[in-house]
Structures are given as structure tokens and as C-alpha cells.
Design goal:
The chain is built from 10 helices and 12 strands. It is α+β, with helices and mostly antiparallel strands. Strands 4-5-8-6-7 form a 5-stranded antiparallel β-sheet. Strands 9-10-11-12 form a 4-stranded antiparallel β-sheet, sandwiched between helices. Strands 1-3-2 form a 3-stranded parallel β-sheet, with no helix packed on it. Its EC number is 1.2.99.2.
Length: 261
């Protein structure tokens, strides 16, 4: 590690001010940032910790939606997001207890790892990512691998999830990291079904439009039978070929529909 300044503001305004004018980065759970700093992949001159800002913590159900503060840990989401069982189950399956008690939903979404679980939940739910300056629709937020619509110095304050009629997240996990080798989140709303896939595409989290159309007409696993997923643009690595991941997308979507039903 190397020398850097550290600040721990007590409010969002103070955090925004601390991030201005220097090579500074926001620190939430630090599950990705700290290891990347140890490997010299990141070298900020200052870290601004968000963990002392109480306004960024908590799970708040409110008239058909659930709002989760950006600094809320995965463990807290798993325990308290009971109004959205599929989301709580997703949070409970992230990493191990040490990761779940340090990592945060805001940190995960700001990092936008292509194999992270929360992006699938946000995209499938049509959630809204709220920052200190604006509200960003899920379809406008994700912008490719490790890339988002966030601007320099912008901080996620909370994420608002409309609660679906039915939902499920199914993940085929990498056993060491418990990241998604491929994961599929299916959410059924009154106006249709949304299907989001993580861990499979070179561009990060994505929607499977053909499955959404089929499931909106017939919410059953059988509706997926006639569909196929192209391997073009999917990840190929030592864990699986693009064709393997294409098959996983279909299999996990069917499992998610069965579980939701």
C-alpha cells in the first residue's frame, strides 16, 4: 500500500465537498477498491469514507416500493428487505459473511462489476438509482463493464425498487468468489415481465428482451422452451465458453420462473 489521505464525513454534502478538486475516490464497503489499491490498479490521493453517513443507511418500505440507502450492507438487505423476498435472497447469497457485513449496495452499483448480483436486481426491477443530484432510471444507469452514468464526484444516496408481483434470482456461482458465472433475475409486474442477466455479457448486465416478451404473454417456464440465446458478445474464460453461458441464461431463466411461480 502507499500513503493517501483519509476523510470520514458525517453528511452527504460534506462527502461531496471532500471529493472535489483532488484525485479522490469515495469508499463504501471497500470490497473491490481496497484490493485494487493493493495491486496498484487504483492510486487515489484521498479516500472519502461514506460509512459514517447515517442518512445513507437503512431499508425503508414505502407504498409499493422499497428504498435502500447506498451504504446499507448486503447483510442488512438480506435481513430487512423482507418486503421484496427475491432481493433479500440475492443479498444473502453474495460472497461470504465477511463480504456481506462490509460490502454495500451502493458500492456494488458504483463499481458495476460484470458478474455482480445487484445490477441484475436493479435492471430487472426497473429500479431508480438516486444520487446527490438526480434520479437515474435503471435502463439509463448501466453503461458497460465497470462503467455507469455516474459523473465525477457524484454519490449514490439510495436505490428505489418497485416491488413486483413475483420475482426470483437464480445464480450459477463461481465457487471461490461466489460471483455469478451467470445469474438471471426475473421480475413480473402488472405491465409486463423484466429479465436481467449478469455474469454473461462482455458489456455487463443486460436485459433479455425475447424472454421478457414471451413471459409477459405466458409466465411459465414452458414459454422459454422455443427461445435461444446467441453466444455473440458473451464472456469466454477458463470457467466457461460463450456457448456455455448462453445455455446457462436459458436454464436459469426457466428456474427463476419456476421459483417465482
Amino acid at each position: 500500500m502507499y500513503n493517501f489521505d483519509f476523510e470520514q464525513p458525517g453528511s452527504v454534502d460534506e462527502a461531496v465537498a471532500a471529493l472535489q478538486g483532488e484525485d479522490a475516490l469515495a469508499l463504501s464497503g471497500g470490497q473491490t477498491l481496497i484490493p485494487s489499491m493493493k495491486q496498484r490498479l487504483n492510486a487515489p490521493s484521498k479516500l472519502v469514507s461514506l460509512t459514517a453517513i447515517e442518512a445513507l443507511k437503512g431499508v425503508c418500505p414505502d407504498s409499493g416500493q422499497i428504498a435502500i440507502g447506498a451504504a446499507t450492507t448486503h447483510a442488512t438487505v438480506a435481513a430487512e428487505a423482507t418486503g421484496y423476498p427475491a432481493l433479500a435472497a440475492l443479498a444473502g447469497g453474495i460472497g461470504d459473511p465477511a463480504v456481506r457485513n462490509r460490502g454495500t449496495i451502493g458500492g456494488s452499483l458504483a463499481n458495476n462489476d460484470p458478474a455482480a448480483c445487484y445490477p441484475a436486481a436493479v435492471l430487472a426491477s426497473g429500479a431508480t438509482v438516486v444520487t446527490n443530484t438526480r434520479e437515474i432510471a435503471a435502463d439509463d444507469y448501466f453503461d458497460g463493464m465497470f462503467t455507469t452514468a455516474l459523473e465525477e464526484g457524484e454519490i449514490i444516496t439510495d436505490v428505489r425498487f418497485p416491488i413486483p408481483e413475483k420475482a426470483s434470482y437464480q445464480k450459477f456461482e463461481q465457487p471461490a468468489s461466489r460471483f455469478a458465472l451467470t445469474g438471471v433475475f426475473v421480475a413480473k409486474y402488472a405491465d409486463g415481465v423484466r429479465v436481467a442477466v449478469t455474469g454473461a455479457s462482455e458489456d455487463g448486465v443486460m436485459r433479455w428482451a425475447e424472454a421478457e416478451a414471451a413471459l409477459s404473454a405466458d409466465f411459465s417456464a414452458a414459454a422459454i422452451d422455443g427461445l435461444s440465446v446467441s453466444a455473440d458478445g458473451l464472456i469466454g474464460d477458463l470457467h466457461g465458453t460463450p456457448e456455455y453461458r448462453a445455455n446457462l441464461i436459458k436454464v436459469l431463466t426457466k428456474r427463476a420462473v419456476d421459483a417465482a411461480s
